[in-house]
Amino acid sequence: MLNFEKQEVARQANNEIARRELLQFTKQTMPTYKSNWHHVSYANKLDQFIRGDIKNLMIFMPPQHGKSELSTRRTPAKLLGDNPDLKIGIVAYNHTIAAKFSRDIQRVITGEGYNDIYPQTTLNNQNVRTMDTYLRNSDEFEVVDKKGSLVSVGVGGGLTSRKLDIAIMDDLYKDAADAWSQVKREGVQDWYDTVLRTRLHNDSQQLLVFTRWHEEDLAGYLLKTEPEKWEVVLYEAIKTDNVTEDDPRELGKALWPEQHSLETFKICKRTTLLCLIASTNKTQHQKKGYCCQMAN
């Protein structure tokens, strides 16, 4: 076999793997991407969500540990590659952050490597707001010649007349202060119940990726009211809970020491130790370790 034929066979094989595995898809569309062990575990769980094996998934992880790159940038792009007729909603704590996610997703779809993997999923090459063509702007876009679309919205924003097959919610609280505010928590919960939930249908999927700062946040509310509907994966900043298949670290180990060492967490001025609360808190979701230990 000639060298260029071998290269073509290898290219096609890599593309096939990228269509099956989020981590390979990420590496092909972002050649500079570097992964830690927890990204492999995280991507495997997201693959189950993408395939539909998990309907509603919560993943708790500390900031700056790579959660949004896989869940909120690469996952929507891959979902629209696998099924360009999907209608996806991206939610963040405000409109600015949500719209930035939308722009990032568009860059993935129009960027290096994507068309080679998913040639049927394309976007309008012009940013347009009101034309008789496929919509594309910073808030939302439609897939050319398909039924699929993606809309981004901040908590409190409107989703009137929208139907969502998949809702991806990424950090619905700006910071710990927001999460500790009862008014803010009630606002997020009310918006979820009266706006987002009304846009879902029987087969809709939900992905909730959080840094947890308070036991009564939206995740806590959902785990209290409908725990049987959600699968939960926890990646603590510092391992305090039992060893699991998703997180096999020894107790006391940092999640990504090459980026955020144990010493870094120890010298932080303030630390929320929600997972330690679990030993005295009587609520079931706390006992199961659904909270995150995170330094601020």
Tell me the count of domains: 1
Instruction: Write down the Rg.
Output: 20 Å
User: Termini separation (Å)?
Assistant: 57 Å
What is the H/E string? HHHEHEHHEEEHHEHEHEHHE
Looking at CATH, which topology would you report?
Rossmann fold
Query: Helix- and strand-based class?
Result: alpha/beta
Give the helix tally.
12
Largest sheet: 7 strands, mixed
Sequence stretches where pLDDT stays below 50 over 5 or more residues: 269-296
What does this structure look like?
With 296 residues, the protein is an alpha/beta fold. It has one domain: Rossmann fold. It is built from twelve helices and nine strands. A seven-stranded mixed sheet has the order 3-4-2-5-6-1-7. Strands 8-9 form a two-stranded antiparallel sheet. Helix 2 packs across helix 4 (67-82) and helix 3 packs parallel to helix 4 (67-82). The longest helix is centred in the N-terminal third of the chain and has 18 residues, at 3-20. Residues 269-296 have low confidence and may be disordered.
Write a concise keyword list for the protein shown above.
single chain; two-stranded antiparallel sheet; 296 residues; alpha/beta; Rossmann fold; seven-stranded mixed sheet; disordered C terminus
